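Project standup — Tuesday

K.O.: blocked on the structure for the chain from last sprint. Re-posting the sequence here as requested.
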Amino acid sequence: MLTPDSDAVRAELERIAQSVLFRNSERRVQLLRYTAEKALAGEKFLKEYTLGVDVFRKPESYDPRIEPLVRVEFGRIRQKLKDYYAAEGLNNPIRIEYNQRGYIPTFSLQDVKSNRIASPEIRRPRVWAWLVAQNRAVVLIVLGAMVLAAAGGVWAYLAQLRTARLSGVDYQLYLKAQFLLDDRSPQHVRQAVENFEQLTQRKPRSALAWAGLAKAYGVTAANDFDDPGVYGPKAHSAADRALRLEPDLAEAHSASGLLKTFYEWDWKGADDEYRRAIAASPSLSDAHLGWAMSLLVRARFPEAVAEANRAVALEPESFANRRGLAMSYYYSGRFEDALEECRRLLRTSPQSWAHRMMYQIYRHTHQYADSRLVAEGLVALPEDASPDLRYAIDLRLQGQTEASLELQRLINESRHRYVQPLAILTVADLAGDERLHREWLEIAYRRHDPALVWLSLTRTNDPLVREILKRMGLDPAAAVISAPPSGH
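H.V.: unblocked you, prediction finished:
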């Protein structure tokens, strides 16, 4: 087998480092470069201990038998490389691979013209290759058997054929949409929705494409980025289509679990969907994160934290996973842990969400000067923060003098465009307008507004809030934290 020269290998490493799957993981790129240079220098074997000390900066007392971080990280790298060469790297002239147990990579030149790599979405058995090699009579016999045994194992293969593969440009578009969706900022989620819509038009028989679209619509509704009354049903339709195409697809069950949690309030159904997703693909971090959030809104705090940590362990660079862990810590009353996760997020992305979370934590812990600084930081993020919520917090900074005017403006706006009920509720509280507060709580309930589920995690004496939460199947008495103190 021909092997590439060192310059070609290093050029391939740079392509990998700039790819969607690797560009946000400095540690993985560092491991790739370190082990590749060892291989180019002629080394045939690398010890796990050596990698732990040289790359992970572990002390000399490091024992890989007790702390298997090198094995875990290389398991992820092997899978990421497979995904990379199924999409972005499909037509690259060089391939870098690791065998199942070793840490020294191999390098090979690829015949690009004959490169035909299926995406991880589906592994097709080579039934037709065998059939073509047989005589015509055998082909007819087997085809007849397939018709007669429609409920049998051969028919399962035909069911698989309904799901088109994603490869090359299509799979790259899928990965790009997933990357945008993980950011959870409104503008990037909108772009992810557009990409998934484009993908389902290009590949209408791909269950993976429809599952991605269901998730994107679901995230839009669950985060109140747009009208849940529009995006909730859209997400439900896309998830159903994915499951009809491929009933065992983990991503489709995970998207269905998200909808059952935030839009349908079907708690048993959500648990069932997430269990199916994890059983089908234990390494799908989306399923662990989704289940963590579903458990969290039901005040099952230890389970929620455990699932959020599993999601982070599987994809530590994911913004959505880190955000989910911060939320699990916060609503469990572990404020210092939540603050640490928020600070970690802000070091990589000045997202309004982290500012809002830190604002709430500082108010809970009576650090009012810090809460004001963080709130001012949020108000200064016009491209990311919701204008309605941003102004609601700005009112809290300025006092209540303008709250009534702003409340009327929001209600007038709601007749022409979608306005988050949470923003109206926040301003109604500031204005002291109990009637509008009650009216918009009922409107939010009738619309199945996903934001209502979070009210279960804050202690309240409001009888209407408690009644609505009970209608949703949630227990407001299980909340650990109380409403943040007013004033200051």
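K.O.: great, moving the ticket to review. The radius of gyration is 26 Å. The mean pLDDT is 79.
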